[in-house]
């Protein structure tokens, strides 16, 4: 059960992405209004917008935070074919603490809309990957983590199909070579699989495609590796015509050119869910990799969780709806929603529970 | 049963027309979700909406809510972790033949924790009632009533599990335990007895006979005798006869020196005597006394007629067994419970609680846990219950299912606690007992804690060091170093840099600091 609290997004247009920092206390939102806003949680646990600025010359598709070990850094990517890296600068003027975000670098190599941008796991240093509508994945690195003005392009991967999303494998172990999953939203199902797995070979200094998920040939709009806390396999959530959960289990093979063993993967589909009954646009994981959130064209957000037998199922559905006669408490920063008939002024947030479970004979206790 | 159907689904509606189209959700802080309306876009067109379109775009933050986060439950959480930890230690240290005693003790500790919470909640309800004229929010009272209901049910289940699975004594004793269980959880006749006896003329009180029947059905024969003795005809033959029968009903004594077989014989002899007196018309003058005797004879029809005094099928079941099968064994309960449900079917709807209790009567531990998962909105109860049951069967080597289920539930519960700003330390205590996945989650949880101050950082470092999570220590130091640097506190930055053994960072800061001094 959840308690809901609303806040005014203050963007002049719809939001494309929301990203939280590592601790969940800072939030970045980006929009078609070409700006990014930074929000901080104040002492009353309310979100306050502490910065807002124009970042690109086109819609900003995605925003993402670097690990706090590198400082307060975000990266954005846009329809204007560029990506950018921003760092916060805090100054204490006489009137209190003032936060501005300074553009440290612009990445202008792409000739098409840059559709996704993600920082690599911190163990790889300060690296990030972008992907574009032209089908190119680019990996950049700041060799000196203390100097964010210098970002050098390290690798280019041509996926041959337009790319919509990328995800780094967050696996913290040094045993696994860096791994990236790329998704394509090419509308042509006969152009083949739409999810590609690339692995970095330290020997050859190249990114190699080690797998393509043949079971997924519909356009992929989003994908994400799950944080791996003690699993022996990788877990990938995919947003396509339905929700997919795929496991990749590393299988060591002796390779003919014996410069050590190369990894290949045993790919299994752990779940395929059409509950949205429509295109699924976004998927994201929680910090522990136990819950997957999906959103679809049916206007719902669903949460998915595996039981102790690793069987995935939907545990929660949230639906946006037009509701008549909703009274709203009037306050500046945020307001709490009330449902139902009489509004008696300020109320603390109420429970939004509707009809419960699958089994009609079961009565909820709460 | 569909094994994937563990926890019940929840539904939520966000009343916002903007969200009608496409709503997106991002999780953060181990349990919170931010919902926002998302616009469809393609890679080839830059869709900005019509200029001048004035719309208020709202985002919605969802926080998990549960009775577990209430003030009343805080003590419950803190005390139960103590019992959990002491259970793990005690079991490993105890001799095999002492295991059961340890588990019974720990089960009773959990029960008393729940009971203490019930008492606290009751006190709060009283206090709220007294302050009602101050316009106390009715929703708080409602929450407390719901909480009381949940606590009652948890204690009911746990006490049944205790007597069926953990505190298993000799065959003859099961009925006594079941009777005590019913007496404890259905105290209404106790209350009524007081009311009736204090009235002017008890025998004329409308509840008089019902209280007698109710006491008999609960095996409280002394109470029944006491109430009967208040009747003006108490010294007439029928009353004296029934008093004798009530007085002489045999109850199995564990250490009484009588074997189960002998007890059974005595009991049959007693019941035959009841039947004889009934047939010979000892109670012909009073249909009430006749009814009592019929109960003693185990007459199902009479017992069933008094269903409204028993409320539930399990009360009916135990009352029936009391007068039909005093040496009932665990495997009899499956049929006995089905039978009671059947007899009561017109009076009640089967609830989720009934499913849990039925599973217990079927001696199906796994099903008990599953049914509990279905109705609980948080894993507190199922986690501790599963841990108890796991230890109960572990040395018997029977259950293959319980170990992974126990670990899963512990991780689930700990994860829930870890997301809470004041309970993350409790989470770590559980994660210490969850194997490698617990360790991985503990490290993640420690790293994700917002570092609000230096002392907070020190606390996290201390807890990480205790567990030899060197990576976490280094990471926290790096973050603190960066923070100090951005705030211009170069001395502090160097200090943290050194602690994190990050040479590049430290030398960079040192360089900065040298430049400043120039």
Structure description:
- Chain A: This is Nucleoporin SEH1.
- Chain A: Keywords: Cell cycle, Cell division, Lysosome, Mitosis, Nucleus, Protein transport, Repeat, Transport, WD repeat.
- Chain A: GO terms for molecular function: structural molecule activity.
- Chain A: Belongs to the WD repeat SEC13 family.
- The complex is a heterodimer of chains A (366) and B (518).
- Helices cover 0% and strands 50% of the residues of chain A.
- Chain A is mainly β.
- Chain A has one domain (15-290): Methylamine Dehydrogenase, Chain H, CATH 2.130.10.10.
- In chain A, the strands form 7 sheets. A 4-stranded antiparallel sheet of chain A has the order 2-3-4-5, with no helix packed on it.
- Chain B has 518 residues and is mainly α.
- The radius of gyration of chain B is 31 Å and the shape is elongated.
- In chain B, strands 2-3-4 form a 3-stranded antiparallel sheet, with no helix packed on it.
- Chain B has helices at residues 71-93, 99-130, 138-166, 174-185, 188-198, 208-217, 221-228, 237-248, 260-279, 287-296, 300-305, 313-324, 333-343, 352-361, 365-375, 380-394, 402-418, 424-431, 435-448, 454-466, 470-486, 490-499, 503-517, and strands at residues 10-15, 23-28, 32-37, 58-64.
- In chain B, a hairpin with a 3-residue loop joins strand 2 (23-28) and strand 3.
- The interface between A and B is large, with 104 and 102 residues.
């Amino acid at each position: 059960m959840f308690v809901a609290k609303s806040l005014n997004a203050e963007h002049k247009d719809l939001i494309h992405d929301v990203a939280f920092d590592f601790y969940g206390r800072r939030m970045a939102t980006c929009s078609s209004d070409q700006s990014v806003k930074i929000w901080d949680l104040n002492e009353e646990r309310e979100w306050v917008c502490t910065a807002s600025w124009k970042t690109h010359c086109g819609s900003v598709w995605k925003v993402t935070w670097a690990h706090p070990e590198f400082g307060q850094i975000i990266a954005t990517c846009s329809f204007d074919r560029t990506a950018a890296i921003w760092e916060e600068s805090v100054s204490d003027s006489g009137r209190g603490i003032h936060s501005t975000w300074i553009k440290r670098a612009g990445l202008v190599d792409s000739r098409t809309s840059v559709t996704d941008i993600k920082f690599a796991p911190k163990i790889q240093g300060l690296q990030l990957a972008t992907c574009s509508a032209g089908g190119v994945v680019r990996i950049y690195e700041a060799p000196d983590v203390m100097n964010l003005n210098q970002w050098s392009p390290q690798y280019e991967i041509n996926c041959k199909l337009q790319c919509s999303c990328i995800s780094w494998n967050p696996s913290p172990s040094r045993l696994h070579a860096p791994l990236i999953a790329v998704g394509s939203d090419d509308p042509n199902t006969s152009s083949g699989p739409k999810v590609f797995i690339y692995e970095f070979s330290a020997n050859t200094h190249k990114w190699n495609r080690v797998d393509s998920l043949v079971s997924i040939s519909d356009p992929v709009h989003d994908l994400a590796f799950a944080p791996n806390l003690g699993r022996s396999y990788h877990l990938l959530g995919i947003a396509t015509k339905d929700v997919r959960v795929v496991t990749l289990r590393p299988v060591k093979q002796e390779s003919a050119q014996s410069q050590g063993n190369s990894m290949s993967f045993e790919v299994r589909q752990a779940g395929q869910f059409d509950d949205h009954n429509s295109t699924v646009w976004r998927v994201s994981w929680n910090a522990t990799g136990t819950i997957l959130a999906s959103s679809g064209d049916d206007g719902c957000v669903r949460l998915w969780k595996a039981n102790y037998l690793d069987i995935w199922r939907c545990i929660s559905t949230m639906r946006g709806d037009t509701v008549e006669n909703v009274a709203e408490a009037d306050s500046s920063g945020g307001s709490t929603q009330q449902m139902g008939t009489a509004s008696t002024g300020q109320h603390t947030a109420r429970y939004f529970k509707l009809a419960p479970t699958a089994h009609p004979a079961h009565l909820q206790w709460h | 049963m569909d094994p994937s159907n563990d926890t019940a689904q929840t539904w939520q509606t966000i009343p916002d027309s903007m969200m009608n189209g496409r709503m997106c959700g991002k999780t953060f802080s181990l349990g919170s979700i931010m919902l926002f309306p998302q616009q469809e876009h393609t890679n080839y067109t830059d869709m900005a909406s019509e200029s001048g379109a004035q719309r208020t775009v709202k985002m919605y933050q969802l926080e998990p809510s549960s009775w577990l986060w209430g003030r009343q439950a805080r003590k419950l959480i803190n005390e139960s972790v103590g019992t959990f930890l002491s259970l793990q230690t005690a079991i490993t240290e105890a001799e095999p033949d002492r295991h059961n005693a340890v588990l019974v003790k720990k089960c009773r500790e959990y029960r008393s924790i729940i009971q203490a919470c019930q008492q606290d909640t009751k006190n709060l309800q009283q206090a709220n009632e007294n302050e009602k004229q101050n316009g106390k929010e009715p929703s708080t009272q409602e929450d407390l009533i719901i909480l009381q209901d949940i606590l009652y049910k948890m204690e009911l289940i746990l006490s049944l599990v205790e007597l069926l699975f953990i505190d298993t004594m000799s065959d003859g004793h099961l009925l006594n335990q079941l009777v005590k269980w019913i007496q404890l959880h259905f105290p209404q006749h106790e209350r009524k007895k007081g009311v009736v006896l204090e009235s002017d003329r008890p025998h004329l009180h409308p509840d008089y006979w019902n209280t007698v029947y109710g006491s008999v059905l609960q095996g409280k024969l002394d109470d029944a005798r006491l109430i009967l003795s208040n009747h003006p005809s108490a010294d007439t033959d029928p009353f004296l006869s029934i008093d004798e029968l009530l007085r002489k009903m045999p109850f199995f004594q564990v250490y009484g020196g009588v074997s189960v077989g002998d007890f059974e014989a005595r009991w049959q002899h007693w019941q035959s005597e009841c039947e004889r007196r009934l047939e010979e018309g000892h109670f012909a003058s009073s249909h009430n006394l006749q009814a009592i005797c019929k109960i003693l004879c185990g007459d199902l029809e009479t017992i069933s007629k008094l269903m409204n005094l028993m409320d539930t099928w399990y009360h009916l079941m135990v009352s029936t067994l009391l007068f039909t099968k005093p040496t009932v064994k665990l495997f009899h309960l499956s049929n006995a419970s089905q039978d009671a449900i059947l007899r009561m079917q017109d009076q009640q709807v089967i609830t989720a609680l009934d499913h849990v209790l039925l599973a217990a009567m079927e001696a199906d531990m796994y099903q008990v846990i599953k049914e509990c998962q279905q109705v609980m909105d948080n894993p507190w109860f199922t986690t501790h219950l599963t841990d108890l049951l796991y230890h109960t069967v572990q040395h018997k080597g029977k259950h293959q299912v319980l170990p992974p289920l126990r670990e899963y539930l512990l991780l689930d519960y700990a994860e829930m606690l870890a997301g809470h700003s004041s309970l993350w330390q409790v989470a770590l205590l559980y994660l210490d007992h969850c194997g490698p996945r617990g360790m991985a989650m503990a490290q993640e949880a420690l790293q994700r804690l917002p570092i609000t101050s230096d002392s907070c950082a020190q606390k996290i470092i201390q807890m990480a060091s205790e567990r030899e999570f060197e990576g976490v220590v280094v990471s926290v130091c790096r973050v603190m170093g960066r923070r100090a640097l951005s705030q211009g506190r170069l001395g502090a930055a160097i200090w943290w840099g050194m602690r994190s053994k990050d040479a590049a960072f430290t030398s960079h800061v040192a360089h900065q600091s040298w430049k400043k001094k120039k």
